[in-house]
Structure formats: structure tokens, C-alpha cells
Write a structure and sequence with these properties.
The protein is an alpha+beta fold. It is 38% helix and 19% strand. β7 and β8 form a beta hairpin.
């Protein structure tokens, strides 16, 4: 880092990635230094952490003491000391810098995959303290499991459950699994239907296949466990369905059912609350639900599959007046962030469980359930789901309710009926254009979570399809809805306004037409420029006011316009 970057980092204060250790009042011992490094190593995230020795908690630079004889600090010896006193040995980078005429020791701590402790067995982690600020807290064993699970190093659903036996499983849940396959319309693994209960459990990895007696794994209880056995062996597992009317709680049910039963029971509650508005598409009535069933099921399945089963707390489904919220304990797996949800590779926290849901036909085998959720909501004229309320300890998806945009839903249905099925990127951009009127290329790239080069391709295809128009203002490319779509969505874009940078191009098209054909009508102008007839009339009036064209054959809708000679 440059000196300016270091000063900026210090000015920003302590965070999950930055910790200050001052030595103004008390020298920092080697043991305290190693513990601070261990704490920074055991934190979520993919970026390096920084320990500043010689900076007080308030960011004031007071300087670090010499750590070796002769009044010096040798960075190489500090690195060696940290490596020798951590397990597994941690390789850090140590730098001395001078700030405000005082020496500061900067220790860069790389992200680690495995939990790191001191040689005397002390484990600390970086987390929020009781005052809401980042602090070093004890790192318990179940938290280590959770961290490893989120990093893809541990599949908790494959862990053996000591004391559990085959009698803790319910034969009816095996039949429920088979029924799910039969009703999955070919998505499930049909080869599993012929297997016995024990063979099915072994194939799924729910029990050990090498032992004479079945040894149950967590997966076995989650899929087939009896309710009382789940409460005994997996007390962290719970699911809640709540219906809220403002501050009034109308339904508040908690259960410890096996997961396929949770899917069935909650899906029936979804169906009981679904409402539809009808639109007419090519003489066919199409129902637009308040919430698409596919989106609700995917949100619930994702919450059950990817939740952290080492962490206490329930999977919550809250049905509110204007939205549905689905939350689950545990943050996003490592590498998954709000800005790459749609494009990152699937990273299931519980791979065995995710595979079982796919083979039961409950989720897509492509593992792109989030894409399906977005697509289903947008097709119904609704806003996409939001994960903005998710934190390090939980993931929350909010599906907005309210009145849908029926004009948008009708447009999508008509395009689909004509064989032009819009992809997720197309729907997201068109939905945003319908709401905002204009999008720049960087905004589109951020929206679809892709590079600007990929966003430019999306823009070009939308323009070629006639869904949007582009402009080039001061080198920044932006697009907006085509006039035809603006009319369909009841969005007015006046000719000549900043929203239409290509008005001059349309004028040139009309003038070329007049030179070749002599005259033009309002309808011909509308088709030529792909704008509404009202917009065509205003454009032709604009040309007459400029003294370029003149109206002939009266002032009715059948009037024609000619070049002014």
C-alpha cells in the first residue's frame, strides 16, 4: 500500500478487516499480538485483514515500540514469530512505515480456509461485539463448523449423528420422497423409485454404506427423520410460517418436520393464499398471480438447503400485506455476494442435501433457482426479489407484492406467445427502463451483474429487437424504451426532450422520405420512426414550425405533409 492508502485506511476506522492496537498506555506483548492476528485470520470474507500496531482505537497514531533488542523491529523476525506461534502456521506480511514521525507496524493477514489458533490452543474470531462494533470473541467449535461449511470445506449434512438409529426414520417420509419424484414431471431421478428404503438412503448418502448396521448422517434425519428424533438430535432445525396483518399476528406456526414435509405443508399454505388477476392475451385469458408459485417454492427450497444447521434459529416464511419474506440462519457461502448472486457459480452449504433435493425433483438440476425466482416475478409484472436485508448471520429474500404492472405482464405474455421468450437479462433491463426511463451502460452492467462489454451486447440485442433506443451523450451510452413500448407501458416521452436524443435522426428519415415520395401522412411517419401517431403528429408539426415542411389536404387525420419549396 502507498502512504496515502494507509492513511485513508486508518481514517476509515476499525472494521471487520482492520484492527488498531495502540501501545501508548501499555506495550503489546507477543502473545497479545499473535491473538490479534489469529482473530483477524478467523473472519468471513475473501480480502486480507490489517493489524496496525501503534495506532489507538480512535485512529490516533502514537507509534509502536521496538520489538527486538537494540531498539529495532525486524519485520522478518515478527513474521517468523507469528508463524511459529500459530497452528496451522500462518504466513503474514509485516511492514514498518513512518506516519507523523512515528513508526507503525502493519501486519497483513491473508484470508485462510481452515480455522487458525495459537500454539497454546486459543481460538478467536472477528465478529460484532455487544456494543455493535467489531471485536475479538471466543471461537467455539460449532462456529468453526459453520465457517468451514460456508467456505465449502465441510458438508454438515454428511456428518454422522451419534446415537441415532434406523428406528428414528419414518417410512412415510421415504414414500413422500418417491411421490415427489413421480410428481416432478421428469425433473426427479426416476431410477430411485425401484429402490428399498435402505438402498435409497445409501444412494443419497444419508447413511454409511460400508458398515454392517446403518450409521445415520444428518441428511437422513433432515429428509426422513421422525419429528421427535429431529427435535432430539437436530435442535437447531425448525421452520416457521407466519402471516402478519400490520402488527397483528394471524398465523404463527413453528414445526420440526423433515424437509420434504415442510415443502409440502408450506406449499399448501402458499396455494391457499394465492390470488390472480386476469389479462386477455390473443383472446386467451391469462392469470397473473400475486406471487408466482415457482418463486415461492424456490425461495423456500433455497432457505432449507442452504441454511446453516449448526446455528440456532428457524427458517422463517412471513406472509405480509405487501410482501413475502423468507429468511434462514447463516450468511451467504464464501464467494457469494449481493453483487454477484445472479452470475456466481452455485456454492451449496450442504452439498449432499442440495443433491437430494435435485434428485427428488424439488429444485432445478441446473442449480439456478435464484434466476428462476427473478424470472417468475418479472414475468408477472412485479419487481425482482431483494436480498438487501441479508447479513453475515442470515439470508433474507423479500418478494414484493402489491398491484402488478399488468401492461408489462401482457407484453411479456404476448412476446412469449409469438415465440420471442425474453431472457432474465432482457426482463431486468426492460423492467428498469419502464420504471426509470433511462439507463446508462454502467447501470445496466451493475443491474445484470456482468461486465460492461456483456451489457453492451444485451443493449444491442434489445435495440435490434425494437424494444429500446440508444443515445450517445458526451461519450456515455444510455438507452430508453422505444416509443412503441413507452406507449404500451403508458410512459410518455415527448419528442425533442432529453429522453429522446435521436429526434434529429427521425427528422432526417422524414426528410429523406419526402424527397423520395413527395409526401407523408401521420400514420406513415409513425411506422417509419417507430413512434406513436400522437408523437408523429407532434414531430410533423415541429417540422412545419421550422419552415421545413407544410401540411396539405386539410387539418384532419388524413392530412399529408410535403417539403416546403
Amino acid at each position: 500500500m502507498t502512504k496515502e492508502e494507509i492513511q485513508t485506511l486508518i481514517a476509515s476506522g476499525e472494521s471487520f478487516d482492520v484492527e488498531f492496537k495502540g501501545e501508548e498506555k501499555r506495550p503489546l506483548s507477543d502473545g497479545d499480538l499473535v491473538e490479534a492476528v489469529v482473530c483477524l485470520a478467523n473472519r468471513s470474507g475473501e480480502r486480507a485483514g490489517y493489524l496496525f500496531v501503534g495506532v489507538e482505537d480512535n485512529g490516533r497514531v502514537t507509534g509502536s515500540r521496538p520489538r527486538q533488542e537494540a531498539g529495532i523491529t525486524d519485520p522478518i523476525r515478527v513474521q517468523a514469530m507469528i508463524s511459529g506461534r500459530t497452528r496451522p502456521a500462518l504466513s503474514v506480511s509485516v511492514t514498518r512505515v513512518t506516519l507523523d514521525d512515528k513508526e507503525v507496524l502493519i501486519i497483513e493477514v491473508p484470508p485462510v480456509r481452515q480455522p487458525v489458533g495459537t500454539t497454546d490452543g486459543k481460538y478467536l474470531r472477528r465478529a460484532l461485539g455487544g456494543d455493535g462494533k467489531p471485536a475479538c470473541l471466543p471461537f467455539h467449535f460449532h462456529e468453526m463448523q459453520s465457517l468451514q461449511s460456508s467456505r465449502g470445506l465441510l458438508d454438515y449434512s454428511a456428518a454422522v449423528v451419534p446415537g441415532a438409529s434406523w428406528t428414528d426414520l419414518d417410512p412415510l417420509e421415504f414414500e413422500r420422497f418417491r411421490r415427489s419424484i413421480r410428481e416432478s414431471e421428469g425433473r426427479g431421478d426416476q431410477a430411485l423409485l425401484k429402490l428399498s428404503d435402505l438402498e435409497l438412503a445409501k444412494v443419497l448418502g444419508a447413511v454409511s454404506s460400508s458398515d454392517p448396521l446403518p450409521v445415520l448422517r444428518v441428511l437422513a434425519l433432515l429428509l426422513f427423520g421422525r419429528e421427535e428424533s429431529l427435535a432430539r438430535y437436530l435442535p437447531a432445525h425448525e421452520a416457521a410460517f407466519q402471516q402478519l396483518q400490520g402488527q397483528k399476528v394471524e398465523v404463527n406456526d413453528f414445526a420440526r418436520w423433515p424437509l420434504l414435509r415442510v415443502m409440502d405443508e408450506f406449499s399448501s399454505r402458499f396455494r391457499a393464499r394465492l390470488e390472480e388477476e386476469e389479462i386477455l392475451v390473443d383472446m386467451v385469458r391469462v392469470g397473473i398471480p400475486n406471487y408466482p408459485s415457482a418463486a415461492l417454492r424456490e425461495a423456500l427450497a433455497n432457505a432449507l438447503i442452504h441454511r446453516d444447521y449448526t446455528r440456532l434459529g428457524a427458517v422463517h416464511v412471513q406472509w405480509q400485506v405487501d410482501r413475502v419474506e423468507v429468511g434462514s440462519p447463516g450468511g451467504f457461502p464464501e464467494g457469494v455476494r449481493l453483487d454477484n448472486l445472479l452470475v456466481t457459480q452455485p456454492r451449496p452449504r450442504n452439498p449432499l442435501l442440495a443433491d437430494a433435493f435435485k434428485r427428488a425433483g424439488l429444485v432445478e438440476r441446473t442449480a439456478r433457482g435464484i434466476d428462476m425466482m427473478y424470472h417468475a416475478l418479472l414475468r408477472c409484472g412485479r419487481q425482482p426479489p431483494s436480498y438487501a436485508r441479508s447479513q453475515e448471520t442470515n439470508v433474507v429474500v423479500v418478494m414484493p407484492g402489491g398491484k402488478p404492472d399488468l401492461d408489462f405482464a401482457r407484453f411479456v405474455a404476448e412476446e412469449t406467445g409469438q415465440g420471442r421468450d425474453l431472457g432474465l437479462d432482457d426482463l431486468m433491463v426492460l423492467r428498469a427502463l419502464a420504471d426509470q426511463g433511462r439507463l446508462t451502460l454502467p447501470e445496466i452492467a451493475k443491474l445484470v451483474q456482468k461486465s460492461e462489454e456483456e451489457a453492451a451486447i444485451i443493449v444491442r440485442l434489445l435495440i435490434e429487437a425494437g424494444y429500446s433506443r440508444d443515445s450517445n451523450r458526451k461519450g456515455l451510452i444510455s438507452i430508453f424504451l422505444s416509443p412503441a413500448l413507452s406507449k404500451r407501458f403508458s410512459r410518455t416521452i415527448p419528442v425533442g426532450s432529453p429522453e429522446l436524443d435521436d429526434s434529429q435522426d427521425m427528422e432526417n428519415k422524414i426528410l429523406d422520405h419526402l424527397r423520395k415520395h413527395g409526401s407523408i401522412s401521420r400514420g406513415e411517419c409513425s411506422r417509419l420512426c417507430d413512434i406513436s401517431t400522437d408523437q408523429a403528429f407532434r414531430l410533423l408539426q415541429h417540422l412545419t414550425q421550422k419552415g421545413v415542411a407544410v401540411m396539405v389536404n386539410g387539418k384532419t387525420k388524413g392530412a399529408r405533409y410535403q417539403l416546403l419549396r
